[in-house]
Amino acid sequence: MANAEVFKSKITVYVVACWIVAAFGGLMFGYDIGISGGVTAMDDFLIKFFPKVHERKLHAKEDNYCKYDDQLLQLFTSSLYLAALVASFGASKACRIFGRKPTILVASLFFIGGVGFSALAEHKWMLILGRILFGIGVGFGNEAVPVFLSEIAPVQHRGAVNILFQLFVTIGILIAGVVNYFTSTLHPIGWRVSLAIAGIPGLVLFFGSMILTETPASLIERGKDTKGKAALKKIRGVDNVDDEYEEVKRACEIAKEVKQPFKKLMKRSSVPPLVIGIMLQIFQQMTGINAIMFYAPVLFQTMGFKNDASLLSAVITGTVNVASTFVSIYLVDKIGRRKLLLQACVQMFICQVSIGAILLTHLNTTGTMDKGLAVVVVVLVCLYVMCFAWSWGPLGWLIPSETFPLETRTSGFAFAVSSNMLMTFLVAQAFLSMLCHMRAFIFFFFSAWILVMGLFVVFLVPETKGVPIDSIVERVWKQHPVWKKFMDDDGPKNKEMV
């Protein structure tokens, strides 16, 4: 079996440009995550679209945990992810039939359309329609970009290259925090400016996607062998790509035998990557990260920070998020995926339990928390965000993108993306209500999930560091003590090709 040392490659300016342009799909996703919480905390936005919420916010004696509890307000944030969930399956088909590059281009068009409706909204339906269009863009982008990055990356750098997607997500969150901090003083159009600025990375992705090369795997899978080999030479920066080309071609020949990949996913041999792909996405959200990143300004206001201070605190957490993602880029191909995931479980558990304990004992339903303790909570949030950013954030996208065989790669990753969007939708739609009813216990709720996640990694998540993407079945699944039982090629279920 070929190994990583056989596949020669050089890092060229062109291939780096391809990585960065594609990763702008992550920046769009991150900008939305970061912008939503700040916009929903702006008085001008609440007065125009959610006046009842604004009235509750003005009442000093209103319950600290419940003053933002409004289903329509939460729908503003969460509707995007419901749309993305549905769109991810169409994106999977587009990726397979038309290729990764056109799918990324389509994502940029939906992003731009969503920005237009959101920033110019005069009625709630325009606001929600903008979010839905943005959500379709997220569905297409989150499906195509991680697969694109994994397929064009050299095996020895695949982890770091794929994590560019998550790095740009964190950069988008940070930019959104900075934008919200400054636009919160622009009355009454600050929220419009915040939403409109999303058009800038959307345009970068649109024009930049035109310079992208299609991935060799996608070209060869669609019968364009000559173009596929030329693309492989272009992204590797060397002429001698025969060994890697033959391996990709073999994977494509197997893929061509599978006429209905979604049915293939129901086969016993598809269980390991499917279970891990779906569960990693569910666990990624059940860490509680998006509950914090969506509503960081709202959360900090709940603890007694003034509006400007809460937005500044969100900028601080965003900065930590970006900086910590570089740790993952550096370490993921050195120490591997499993160690990062397990270390983070320990650190996140301690942070979540500590935050819950402080809020439980020191934040009453009315009034504010002691400023010193509030600062401690912000520090704990930063420590929590830090370890998430070098583990479950990027690896939740990396591992599913590299563990599916080519014949089910786009359809399998569609299940992973849709699982992420479903859980993100549920968390975004439910968090403010959960905060109202569970109060500080919501952090203990997420802590319990982190324990389950750690056990899942210990027993079921294999190490994929340094394994060529089209050799995963032989070198990972068939060697794993649990999952190898699902890889019995002699079994009748696996002999049948749909």
From TrEMBL:
It is found in: Membrane. The chain crosses the membrane at residues 12-31, 72-91, 103-121, 127-149, 161-183, 189-212, 274-298, 310-333, 372-392, 413-435, 441-461. CDD domains: MFS_STP. Its main location: membrane. The keyword Nucleotide-binding does not apply. NCBIfam families: SP. This is Major facilitator superfamily (MFS) profile domain-containing protein. It comes from Camellia sinensis var. sinensis.
